[in-house]
Amino acid sequence: KAQRVDFSWNQLADPKFIFHDYSLLETVKEGNPEAQAFFRLLALCHTVMAEEKKEGELNYQAQSPDEGALVTAARNFGFVFWSRTPETITVIEMGKKVSYQLLAVLDFNNVRKRMSVIVRNPEGKMTLYCKGADTIIYERLHPSCNKLKEVTMGHLNEYAGDGLRTLALAYKDLEESYMERWMERHHEASTAMEGREEGLNQLYEDIEKDMMLLGATAVEDKLQDGVPQTIEQLAKADMKIWVLTGDKQETAENIGYSCNMLRDEMKEIFIIAANTADGVKEEL
After folding, report:
1. Which helix (H) or strand (E) holds 214?
2. Where are the alpha helices (DSSP H) in the chain?
3. What parts of the chain have a pLDDT lower than 70?
4. What is each CA distance from 282 to 210, 245, 277, in whole angstroms?
5. Going by C-beta distance under 8 Å and a sequence separation of 6 or more, which residues neighbour residue 120?
6. Which SUPFAM superfamilies does this entry report, sorted A to Z (predicted)?
7. C-beta separation of 180 from 187 below 8 A
8. What is the distance between the alpha carbons of residues 89 and 80, in angstroms, rounded to a whole number?
9. Distance of alpha carbon 124 from the chain centroid
10. CA torsion, ordered 223, 155, 242, 66, to nearest 10 deg
11. Which of 113, 158, 152 is nearest to 136 (CA)?
12. How far is CA 210 from the centre of its chain?
């Protein structure tokens, strides 16, 4: 088995974080711009709150374990989410404290299946960072990403086959003139008495396109203790069990087997596909 990565060079690393690929750490330390942008995105695009209980001891409060895991990964690789205010996000990047002006948060919901933040760095450059379901992100990428899309899709399928929960990450550099107009429209939509949600959704659609792919993340979805045994007992009692999932089909099947929801002797496992109200095909 590969040796566990030693993060002791990073005083702000979380000692509980376990990782085994040294090459990724070397790539980041060498200053690879794509690798650094990848972790910068993870340090900026989230809803995590940070608190310093004792001096230098950083704790994260996350709405979901997945989000906590991704922000902690960025932290250990040298992109430490440090603090936030309604107007700023502060990250310690390879030891240097950088404060980003937070221009907008484009919230995640079950229809959008993605979240974005728009930030301005200290040099004045504006960037949109987006993370979300691979199918959704892939529809919104710039054509120049086609080669990376193929490579990344191979990785995503491999991760899903291992039962991991996956996300795709993308960014977009923004022009000053475009952003001035967009922020005006954003203010109008945010304060509208009617059609607020529709107006914001349209604005989000306008800006979350022609993005550049950075890569993908995969997180192990650990079952709570006793889940497989409980489901097995319920099935023996002839109780019908339904699980609704937003995961990729491969991930859903893999988790289905690991929690004893699906068993090898089951002959006919089939996928039910449905069209949602807006015509988007969803697999159930």
Report:
1. strand 212-220
2. 22-29, 33-44, 65-76, 134-138, 146-161, 176-190, 196-207, 227-236, 249-258
3. 1, 56, 267-284
4. 24, 11, 11
5. 100, 101, 103, 126
6. HAD-like (SSF56784), Metal cation-transporting ATPase, ATP-binding domain N (SSF81660)
7. no
8. 11
9. 25
10. 40
11. 113
12. 18
Sign of CA dihedral 34, 36, 38, 44: negative
Tokens 């890569």 correspond to 215
Q: Return the structure tokens found at 269.
A: 């496992």
Per residue in 108-142, pLDDT tens? 998 999 999 999 999 999 999 999 999 999 999 99
**Distance between CA atoms of residues 183 and 176, nearest Å:** 10
Could you tell me if 58 and 75 are in contact, meaning their C-beta atoms sit under 8 angstroms apart? yes
Reference 129, options 72, 85, 167; nearest CA is: 167
Residue 88 tokens, joined:
């700023």
DSSP state of 132: E
- Non-local (6+) Cβ contacts of 175 within 8 A are none
Question: In this predicted structure, what is the pLDDT of residue 283?
Answer: 46
Count the residues in the chain: 284
Report d(CA 118, CA 126) in Å as an integer.
7
Amino acid at 219: V
pLDDT tens by residue, 136-171:
999 999 999 999 999 999 999 999 888 899 999 999
Separation CA 136–CA 92 (nearest Å)? 30
**Which amino acid makes up residue 102?**
L
Which residues does 93 contact at the CB level (< 8 Å), separation at least 6?
36, 40, 43, 78, 79, 80
SS3 117: strand
pLDDT of residue 241: 85
What is the spatial order of strands in the sheet that 126-132 belongs to?
A: 79-84, 88-93, 96-106, 114-120, 126-132, 164-174, 212-220
pTM for this predicted structure: 0.84
Cβ(63)–Cβ(47) below 8 Å: yes
Rounded CA-CA distance 23/41 in Å is: 20
